[in-house]
Amino acid sequence: MTTPDELEILRSERFAAAGIAHGFSTRGGGVSTGPLASLNLGGSVGDDPGAVEENHRRLARAAGFERGAFRSAVQVHGSRVLVLGADAPIPPGEEADAILAAAPGLAVAIRTADCVPILLADPRTGRVAAVHAGWRGTEAGIAAEAVRALAELGSAPSELIAAIGPAIGPCCYEVSSELADRFVRLAGPEVVEGRRLDLILINRLQLRAAGIPEASIEQVGGCTSCDDSRFFSHRRDAGRTGRHLSFVFSG
């Protein structure tokens, strides 16, 4: 989707068909400059705070939300799921790598620049979750933890839908032999080719193992490292890069 600000938001066909407001930001349409150009949505990467604020304002307007609607936590590459009720604020410094909206009218969001962004939704109840899965979170099963948290609230995993957003692909994600071996033991030989790790596939397998049908899991966008015109990439840009925002609105 392209907006008047030339800001592109990637969307899941399945989420859109269910009437669930959501999106995965790309890097165009903002005001940040240099390696952070232009829609950097990360506040801890050395960008001008005014530019980050304007970028958030532009994304919120494009998504049809009020500025400040996006609720996010401090991401620490862990497996904690933060559950939000109605009008529940997130205290400053609160750490979590998945945020679950258990009440309607909440927009939850996570930030990435290679890690796997996952959005989950229960079209029946309107409950949603946003998940940040780097290799540590993936190893800890953060996606399955989010599914489990939704199930504890009464959402059947078989009725959930999932959208996996832009992330670094196995084409570009080479890891140490030790780490590759750990993931082979965790998820099977299909997730590693040589020393190239497929984090997207591992998370897909974990979602399936948690009870979400394969047909209900959709991948949106491509490899963040391959496409520098469209995506930020921590690996490609040696850490000096912006952040994307992946968000979903509870119904």
Automatic annotation (TrEMBL):
Keywords: Hydrolase, Metal-binding, Transferase, Zinc
InterPro entries: Cu_polyphenol_OxRdtase, Cu_polyphenol_OxRdtase_sf, Cytotoxic_necrot_fac-like_cat
GO molecular function, one term: S-methyl-5-thioadenosine phosphorylase activity
Reaction catalyzed: adenosine + H2O + H(+) = inosine + NH4(+); S-methyl-5'-thioadenosine + phosphate = 5-(methylsulfanyl)-alpha-D-ribose 1-phosphate + adenine; adenosine + phosphate = alpha-D-ribose 1-phosphate + adenine; inosine + phosphate = alpha-D-ribose 1-phosphate + hypoxanthine
Zinc found in the keyword field: yes
Keyword Glycosyltransferase applies: no
Family: Belongs to the purine nucleoside phosphorylase YfiH/LACC1 family.
NCBIfam families: peptidoglycan editing factor PgeF (TIGR00726)
Full protein name: Purine nucleoside phosphorylase
Species of origin: Vulgatibacter incomptus
